[in-house]
Amino acid sequence: MKFRKTAAAALILAALCSPAGADPATSGAGQKVLHMFLTTSETGLDPAVASNIETLSLLENLFDPLLRYDYLARPVKLQGNTATDMPVVTDDGRTYTFHIRPGIYFTPDPAFKGKRREVTAADYVYSLKRLYDPTLKSPWSFMFEGKIAGDAALRNNFSYDTDIDGLQATDRYTLRIRLNEPDNNFPFYMATPATGVVAREVIEAHPGQAGNYPVGTGPFMVGDWKRSDRIVLLRNPDSTAVFHATPGIDPVDKAISAELEGKRLPRVDRVEVKIAEEFQARMLGFLNGEYDYIEQVPESMTDMVIEGGKLKPELAARGMQLYRFPVLQTYYMWMNMEDPVLGGYSKEKVALRRAISMSYNNAEDIALLKKGFAVKAESPLPRNVLGYDPNYRSPVPYDPALANALLDRFGYDKRDPDGFRRQPNGQPLTLTMYSEATVSGRLRDEMWRKCLNSIGLRVAFKSDKKTEIIKASRLGKVQMFESNWIADFPDGDNFYQLLYGPNAGRANYARFNLPAYNQRYEQARLLSDGPQRQTLYFEMNQLIHAYNPWVPLTQVISADIRQPWLKNYKRHPVEFTSWRYLDVDVAQRARTTRGAR
């Protein structure tokens, strides 16, 4: 192991000083190519089903929702995408009318029998109905179920041919959606990849295989695709996307706006995406010029590229730039509330979970594992999300001594010969925590082992790919897992729904189902951001800390680095990628990589 670490350090040091250089950002006759990576294998490319960040990153470039975020506006705001503008809202916030731009076409597919297939309002009706399809088990159905007028007919006896009052194509280019009650977050839902438009003919031509045949209207379309290894996106020649944005006072924003305003998107011809699960491979690839930017530098690699909070001088000399970005992301360790060892709402089970929470050494995590690029998570909400309370502090401290006393008091005082605690009924007690089979995953395993052992708890770790862990989590087969959530939309509802009882088996991996929490969540989601909702959020935080289905961990300050030849880069707080806006200075890339050799 010592030899491997030394060898890895030597490889990275060599890349810092004299990178091998990558092929120029061209393929064929002068094509501009963006070189990217995903950190985990993609799943099927179906907007209604996919939920992992890597797959969503691809989907938002292939499929078109009605709305999209303004690339430059801060705080974030929405704008029309396939809709001509923001919807017309009437009926006291219950009815939304979208007008769809004529002349938007799906990419070619045999299902269209050689004809160009224009997008209509009826296609959005069909696409939204797919989120209700019980055979798909869409993780996004929570955004609409029980909210669209008449959708009980879809929930009780699903059929794509069922007509409901709340979801109507009133003419070829007009979509009207009626809600049972006002929902302040509804426009955000209509900007998620899950609401991207699909064609019924394509879905029905490939029953059960829609994720293998991604046919959308986005700025890119799929070219070469080697699963879990490499995917190439090609410029969609029929893309109708045109850049419009609202720059602030930042000179960088103004320069991007001046460069792009009114221009057709995307700006590159191809995006070549590799799957790079190992941190070292990602870092070496970036330093060698194989990738155009890297976001959220792996915590175990931070010391290799950052020194004293700044980019290392040798990298700055090569023209690279470091950005600090407060991600709308919360890391948390969830515990299965239905697990026979760990779950339940009895006092001794609550005591066990609270002791686990009090064993977590937040300061060590931030300093040693995240290298200072994080802050403590006091609640599920990260900063800059609507509903965040900067004054809220968790009432559950890091206190191993108190955790030990709590376990002793509630029946976990019996010990095995090796000193580990037994259950109150005298049975052996071993916790099983799932983890990712990566360098970072192993480092986190050791931190959790140290924390849990300090309060007398034995823990075993089961490593697997994250996609497999998530599948098992939805089935309730995982006892504990450290996960994270990045905002789908910048509102507290998107985080608090992770613990809403009816979402168990979907985003609620902890399977937390507490009536007092559910009632407050249901009240809060009907309110806009303000004092009344803030009070409900405070009470929900208190319930989370009382029952401890989660251990809130950290909220990340991302270290992002871009190559000098990359143009128009600005990370968005909500959207996963900025690929459609990016451009590549081919000549500068060639000069930089040639000079580095």
Automatic annotation (TrEMBL):
BP term (GO), one: peptide transport
Domain Solute-binding protein family: residue ranges: 78-504
Signal peptide: 1-22
Broad class of the protein's primary localization: other
Pfam families: SBP_bac_5
Localisation per UniProt entry: Cell envelope
GO annotation, cellular component aspect: ATP-binding cassette (ABC) transporter complex; outer membrane-bounded periplasmic space
Keyword tags: Signal, Transport
Molecular function in Gene Ontology: peptide transmembrane transporter activity
Entry's family note: Belongs to the bacterial solute-binding protein 5 family.
Protein name as annotated: Heme-binding protein
Species, as recorded: Massilia horti
